[in-house]
Amino acid sequence: MKTHDLVQGSPEWDEFRLNHFGASEAAAMLGLSPKVKRSELLHMKWTGNAKEFSKFVQERILDKGHEVEALARPLVEEEIGEDLFPVTCSEGLLSASCDGLTMGEDIAFEHKLWNEELAAAVKNCELPDEYMPQCQQIMMVTGCKKVFFTVSDGTADKMVCMAVPPSQQWFERIRAGWEQFEKDLETYTPPDVKAESVGRTPESLPSLRIEVTGMVTASNLVQFKEHALEVFAGINRDLKTDQDFADAEKTVKWCGDVEDRLKAAKAHALSQTESIDVLFKAIDDITAEARNTRLELDKLVKARKEQVRTDIYNEGVNALRDHIAHLNARLGKPYMPNITADFAGAMRGKKTVASLRDAVSTTLATAKIEANAIADKIEINLKALREQAMDYAFLFSDTSLLVMKAADDLQAVITARISEHKERVAEDERKKEAAKAEVPEAESAPVPVAAAVKSEPVKQPAHVPTVATPPTLRLGQICERLGFTVNAEFLAGLGFTATIEKGAKLYHEEDFGGICLAISNHIAVVAREYRFEIAA
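-> structure tokens emitted (536 positions)
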């Protein structure tokens, strides 16, 4: 652990945090923070805007928070019986700004302002996931044995505490999460950052002026119509961004207003004259165009919103598929299992393009982290098989299943299979030597027909299966290895009974050597019997 002489909230402290992955940012990085989105954290780190970063990630550390924390510290010191010292520290890229750390660096103090819901959870020793990553990263960086998590208003009456122990599972999750975050940061392309999208209507149309007596005495209707149609034609129908959708929705209402104004103008004209065909036709044309534009745009907004959701969903699916393909290429074969990500569930309830993209990117990052961990495990297991079982590949035809085991379990399987194989080979050699020693010289002489007829067939020795692993050796694999076909009934006659699973006949890999020996003995018996008949 490396300590840094920094004052929390100072420009130097902000700069330090921008160049490190802080404990208070870990929840946002994992997509567990309700206050800061993962995509926002990526943007802040990429832009390097310390001021903006502090507001978002540090939850705007207020003077009230510092004041209450200072009041709570002596109460906690009395509780644990040791002094606490604020410290900013790092371990590589990971950092932590501790509200307090004991001199022996074995207990850390983390304080949050009083909140009824959080206080109730802490009182029951149930720390919400939103706060767990920060506590765990503090322990990762400092090496302390526990974090004394405190919620208070600075008084003993409103103060609850719980001791948070280290969790190796959380350590691995945080470490893998930051590794993926760093990769995403290297390829990050910032979107256009805009204020909340507020719809804008097209430019205002000029006031429509109509005066009639028994004829149209004054009107700018021709110019009005020409200008209006140009405005309608220029309305954006290629909807992609939140701003586009907001503009379109506002324009839908604007078109409705235009229709209403034209209807009012027409009604006003009618009150002055009975009928003027050119006037009414122009008004009707403009009204119809406003209505058509409104209906078209309204329908387009709904259709494009659904299409954008689909496009964002497909982007997540394709990105995860490409990542799995990359991992399989790294492993040399398609060993990776199916990794699923609930993109649809993450998108549920999201209304804006930005929130949809954030939900999908966060879910994608989580799935990539899971896939990376599995790929790392497979790679370790493949290395173990290559190094320890290189000369015994025939014993590990189920490699695709074995690589998914825990390292210790795989080690046990490797040791057991090779050991049992060597024992079978040694036993076969002992039997061969014993058989050679027991065969009398006279046995090679022709046997009379009568003797051959009366002789009892040589029975196969009873087989006692050795069960070290589940049956995985298929009947077809046995035939392929032997170079000829045998059936389950024949093997059962030799003492090897198949296990039936979903119609497949399975045997224990450890029994293959015994099967070969039994078939060999059977062939020897048949050969002797056939030779007796020829001799007769």
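The first strand starts at residue 2 and ends at 4.
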